[in-house]
Each structure stands twice: as structure tokens, then as C-alpha cells.
Amino acid sequence: MTRKYFPIFISIVLILLSSLSIFGLILQSTNTLDTNVAITLREQPGTNQASIGQIEPGEEFSTLESQNGWLYIETIQQETGWIPEWQLNNLNITDDQSIAGQAITNAVLFAENSVSSIALETIPEASYFPINYESDGWAQIEFSGRVGFVRSSQIKILSRDEVPEEELEKQQVSRESEQSEPEEETTVNENTVIMRQSNQAFLEEPDLNSTILYTPDMYEEFQFISSTENDHGEFYLVANRNGNRGYIESRVVSFATDSLNHVSDTGVTSMSDAVIVIDAGHGGSDPGAVSQDENTYEKNVTLSTSIFLQEYLEAMGATVIQVRSSDTDVSLAERAQISNDNEADAFISLHYDAGYDPTYSGTTTYYYHQDDYDLAQTVNNHLEGLPLESLGVMYGNFQVTRENNRPALLLELGYMSNQNDLSYIRSEEYQRAVAEAIANGIREHIEQ
Length: 448
Ligand SMILES: [Zn+2]
Description:
The chain is an alpha+beta fold and 448 residues long. The protein has four domains: 17-89, Roll (SH3 type barrels), CATH 2.30.30; 99-180, Roll (SH3 type barrels); 192-259, SH3 Domains (SH3 type barrels), CATH 2.30.30; 271-447, Aminopeptidase (3-Layer(aba) Sandwich), CATH 3.40.630. It is built from ten helices and 26 strands. Strands 22-21-23-26-24-25 form a six-stranded mixed sheet, with helices on both faces. A five-stranded antiparallel sheet has the order 12-11-10-7-13. It has a five-stranded antiparallel sheet with strand order 19-18-17-14-20, with no helix packed on it. α5 packs across α10.
């Protein structure tokens, strides 16, 4: 645009703007406040917003705009501001502060005033709760001892006087305990569980044969409600973001809080500075998998493999700590603890697999913490050189890796239930090859 047309352009804009404001005036509607009490006029649409005046009963006003349950009005004194429409519709509400809500449907309690925030829980239809404030289509409420947000469209706003006192009390956050023990600032919700595998089922019942409601996305988050165990395994009853409830297998999910203390980068870049904890699976009263001919126990082959692994790692300069160096019982909690206490730069749990199908064959690299995926990938690359096929890197919910704050893997190094795999597993040559591959993988990860 050149300069000489500028005034013409401005004039057109001005004409358009003035015609719009005339239109605006025509669209206005005039009301009379027919409540028994005055209504607070606020600067913005929210009960937590600044009060700028009052509309008295019988006073006239024009509505300029309506938005999320709030009206932008102009008084006859030409004052403008926002009033809650829901207060006009409920004559029992005497002010916009001592208000409560009742869910008119099963409503989701969100951590923030956004549907993309974490869903804390589902508020059952007809439940009552105190409202701290209502703003722009969201109410901040207290429900079962926690503070969260619910969409105003899913609730009926009431005066607190309309709700039985005990109904509100049981939802309220205890102010005293809040003051004496201030909650630690954390962005991770303790009840959030995360889907860690693809193609898993969101089930109607805690039963793999029950109706599949849908297939959750990888890393989809749920609110944990309860757990249940039966012949099919362990299941969590959870609510998804939309508040729908269903069951998922516990082995395919993790709790968001599990990785809070997990260290993925220990800062060590040389094997001579590295501390490696080797966990020979099973032991003592726990034989692990047993071969069909009952001649080979998993606890014995993991122990012999662990000794070979120690040799390779020490030859590279690493300091090695064995969880067990003989046929003894060590609890799963202790195994993870040994890694945490020694601030391991890597924790490697050695296992040999068993399956009901004798054709199952190969090795699997399991990791739990997302941050350990790179270590898993690197070690698995080296396992690919073994005579048994690598089945790849998989997420696995095992206690020794889950409760490990240090880089941790659990390796299944072949199937004892497969005759061909077993002949390898029994041989020193294979166990040494496995140990060397793992050591090379750890070294590559640490020195990269
Ligand atoms: Zn095992």
C-alpha cells in the first residue's frame, strides 16, 4: 500500500467500526435484576476476579456479551463488568463466594483448568462439593480431599446453604494438615499410570477374555483406582482422560512416580571408573526355570554366567559387585537396593526364560525406566551377534529394574523350555559369548 491511499483506508475502517457498534447496540437486551440480593460486578468473568461494583435488586442493565456462564453487562450508569449468569438463575445463591456444586453427570476432576491436564478422578453424578471459585467455564473445587478443576457445564452451581453440611465436609481438603505438612511441589501425580506397550487392551473386566473397550496409545496416562489379582494376572482398575473406567494389565504400565529418583546418566565415561552390579537371577530356595529333564536350574546357569560377566568387566577395568556369588536367597527388594546403595553405573539382571510353548526361542532385553532405553538398545545390539535370535528390546515391569534408581536392565538370555536353546544355555562357550556381548554393550554405553 502506498502512502496516498492511507487516509482512505482509515476512513473505511472507521465507517465499518461505527456501523458495527450501532449493530452492537441493537443486539443488546435490557434486563431487570430480579434477585433478592445484590450481585457483585467483576472486572473479569470469574468469582476470583476483582470486584468493581454491585447491581442492586430491581436495577436495569444491558447484556453486551455472554461467555461460559458469565454475562458482560452495562448498567444505566454506564458501568460495565461481568456477572455470573448462574446466580441469576438460582435465587438461593446470595453471593458468588459461598457456593457449592453438584455434578449433573459423571464429571472428570482435572489437575488444571484444561481438558489436556491430568485427570485426577471421576466425580460420580449427583455428588456435592465446595467450589473455591468459578471462572471462564471452570470451577476450582475440593473433592475427596484434593483440589482440582471441573467444567462448569458439568455441574449445577448452588448456594452452600442448599447442601447438607456433611456432604461438603467429606470432600473438603483438611486445612490443618495442609498447613502442618505442606505438600511437596511436584508435577507428577502419584496416581498416574502410564501405558508402556503398544497394542494393549483397555478391558471391561479384569479378564483378558472380557470385552476390549479400546486399544490405548503408547504412553497414554490413566488414573489408578485399585488393583486386583486373579488367574489371568494382576490388573489395575483405572480411569482414562475422559473418565471412562476399565482394566489394564499391570505388567504393561508404570506409575509416573516410579522414575522420579531414577538416574540415567551417572556421569561416568570410563570403564575404570564404573561400578557394575551383576544380579544372577533366582538362587537358594528359588530355582527359577527348570529344564524338562530337571538337570538344569536357571539359578545355576545365571550364577555361572554372572562369573564370566564379572571376568570380562574386570578385564575392562570396571569394579564389579555381585548380588550373590553362591547359591543363596536374595530378595528382589535387596537386589535393587544393592544397586542403589552402591550407586551402580549399570545394573544387569541375568535370567534364562521359560515358556509353555517349546518352540519359543531367543533372547530379550527388558528395561523399565524410559531413560534406560538407550542402554537397553546398545546392549541388545551386541546380543544380536549371539547364536540365538534376539527378540529385541522390550518394556518389562520387573521389581529389580522398577525399584532401581540406577541404569538397569533385565536380560532373558534364551529359553530353557526350548531344546535347542537349552543346549546352548548349558554350554560354557555360549555363556561366555553372552557375557562378553553384555560387557561390550555396557562399555559402549558408558564410553560413548
Ligand atoms: Zn528368571
